[in-house]
C-alpha cells in the first residue's frame, strides 16, 4: 500500500503521551457521502440535534476510550472544527487528525491513522456514520479481545445480508473468523451467510505493525479493504475472535437522507 496519499496533520490539542496509550479509537470520517446529495460531509449531518460523528465519539467515550485518531478527507477543516468543538467539552480526551487525501478504502484509511497511534497501542476501528452504538457492547467487545489477546470483529445476524461483508468462520467451529468476504467478491455459498461485518474491529498493535502493509487492492472495487486483515491474520495463525452483537439496529449506518429521517423517527430498518 502506498503511503503518499496520506498527509501529516499537526492538529492535536494535547501532546501525545506515547507510553500511556493502550487503546486508541480510530474513527473513519473521510468520505463525502455522495448519496446524501449534500455538500456537507456525511459525518456532519445532524441527528437528534448533533452531528453524526459527535454521537460516535460520545458512545466511544462512554465505552471508556479517551484517545482518538479521526481520519478526515472531504472538507476536512469542517470535520476537524466540529470534532474540536466536541472535544472542548471533554478535557480528558486526546484527539489527533489524520488526513486521507484520496479515499482508497478502509484499509488505506487505517494506514493513514497509524503514524498517530502509539507504538504499543491496540486500536478500535469505528465508523463516523454509525451513530447509535451501545457503549456497553463496545466495552464488552474490547474486554473480550484484551482477555483473549486477540484481534476481533463485531458481527451481526441479518435476515437480508445483501450488500454486507459476510463473516466466514474458521473451519474448526471455534468462535473465530477465517475471512470476511465482500458482496461483490463472494461466492454463491458465501452470499448465503447471514452473519455479517458491522465495520467495527479491534486490532492488536503487533498485528497492525506486521500485517497492515500487506493489504492489496486486488478486488472488484480496487480498494484496500480493512476486512482483508482478517484473512491475512488467519493465514498467519493469528486468531480473530468474533463478537456477535445482540441488536443489528445499533449498527445501522447513515447513507442517505432517508436513513437519517428513519433513525431520527426511531424506525428500525437494519
Please characterize this protein's 3D structure.
- The chain is α/β, with parallel strands linked by helices.
- The chain has two domains: 120 residues, Spore Coat Polysaccharide Biosynthesis Protein SpsA, Chain A (Alpha-Beta Complex); 100 residues, Alpha-Beta Complex (Spore Coat Polysaccharide Biosynthesis Protein SpsA, Chain A).
- The protein is 27% helix and 23% strand.
- It has eight helices and twelve strands.
- The radius of gyration is 17 Å and the shape is globular.
- The two termini are 33 Å apart.
Summarize the structure.
This protein has 270 residues and is α/β, with parallel strands linked by helices. The protein has eight helices and twelve strands.
Write the layout of secondary structure elements.
Elements: E1 6-7, E2 23-29, E3 46-47, E4 50-51, H1 52-62, E5 67-72, H2 76-87, E6 94-100, H3 106-113, E7 122-127, H4 135-148, E8 151-157, E9 166-169, E10 177-181, H5 188-191, E11 195-203, H6 205-211, H7 228-235, E12 240-244, H8 257-264
Parallel strand pairs: 2-5, 2-7, 5-6, 8-12
Antiparallel strand pairs: 1-6, 3-4, 7-11, 8-11, 9-10
User: Radius of gyration over alpha carbons?
Assistant: 17 Å
Which fold name fills CATH's third level, the topology of the largest domain?
A: Spore Coat Polysaccharide Biosynthesis Protein SpsA, Chain A
Biggest sheet statistics:
8 strands, mixed
Which percent range fits the helix content? 25-40%
The fourth-level CATH homologous superfamily of the largest domain is Spore Coat Polysaccharide Biosynthesis Protein SpsA, Chain A
Structural class: alpha/beta
What's the number of structural domains?
A: 2
Mean pLDDT: 89
Question: How many DSSP-defined strands?
Answer: 12
Shape: globular
Strand order of the largest sheet: 1-6-5-2-7-11-8-12
